[in-house]
Amino acid sequence: MCRVYLVVGLFYMLIIYIKITTKENTHDVAIWGDLRSPLPQMGFILDDRCRWSQFSAIILTLVQLDWNNSCEVYRIEDYFNSNEYYAIEKIVKQIKVNNAYQSLAISECFNENLFLPEMSLQTRDEIIDLMCKRLYENNYVNENFRNQVYQREAVAPTCFSNQIAIPHSIKKDAKKSGICISVLREPILWNGYNVRLIFMFALNKSFDQVPKLYELILDAIDDKTRYQKMLECKNFKDFISILMKGND
Q: Is 16 exposed, middle or buried (0-12, 13-18, 19+ CB in 10 A)?
C-alpha cells in the first residue's frame, strides 16, 4: 500500500482523489488529508499533518510547503491537467517497486552466485538446464526441480513477448527461495519469441511475495531504457541497481 498525503483544500482534495484512484497503478493508494472533518465515505483518513505526513510515501500539494518532511513531494501546478496525474502515477509506481525490494523476503532471493551474464547458449532447454544446475549447486533446490520446471513449461510457456522469460517449478517446494538470472549475448527462441533475459524462480512454500516480485521485474522490463541497460550488464551489483532503482 502506498500512502499519499494531500495538502489541499476539501474541493481540490475530492477532485485529486477521484483522478488518482482511477489510474491503473494508483487505484489502491491510501489517501490522507490535512483536514479536521472526516470523510469516511471517500476512504479518507484525516488527522494532524505532523503525525500522518511522516508515514506517507508521497505528499501532493498545490502550494510551496514550509514544514519539514522526509518523503517525496510533488507540487501540482494544474489539477485539471491529465499529465499531472500520469506523473503522479509514475512516482507511485516507482515507490511500490522500491517498497517491494525493501521486503526482506524479496531481497534475499537475489544472490551473486545466481547471476549468469554474457551467456552464449542456443536453445531454451540449454538455459533451463544450466540455471537449474546453478540453483542445485547452491543448495536452493533438490534434484527434482529441473523436472518440475519442464512440467510447468508443458502447461504454459513462461516467456513474456520478445523480452523475458520467467521459468519456475510447478510447485513451491524449493529448499530456500532464490532467483537465478541469465543475460544472453544473443536471443534464443522460446515458444516463438526471441528472449535474452531470463529470471528463474525457485520459491519455498513460505514465500508470500509473488505478486510484488512480478511487479518488481515487469516494471523494470516495461522501461525500455532500463531493459537495455540490464542486457548490457556484466556484474551483479550493477544489474540489481538498475532493476531496483531505475535510471537514478
A: buried
d(CA 3, CA 32): 7
Number of helices (H), then strands (E), belonging to the chain: the values are 9, 10
The answer, yes or no, to whether residue 126 has pLDDT greater than 80, is: yes
* Angle, CA of 167, 171 and 174, to the nearest 5°: 85
* Rounded-to-integer distance, Cα 6 and Cα 103, Å: 26
Coil/strand/helix, residue 187: strand
Q: What is the dihedral of CA 71, 77, 80, 86, to 10 degrees?
A: -50
Q: Which of 210, 206, 207, 186 is nearest to 196 (CA)?
A: 186
pTM of this prediction?
0.63
Return the C-alpha cell found at 57: 510515501
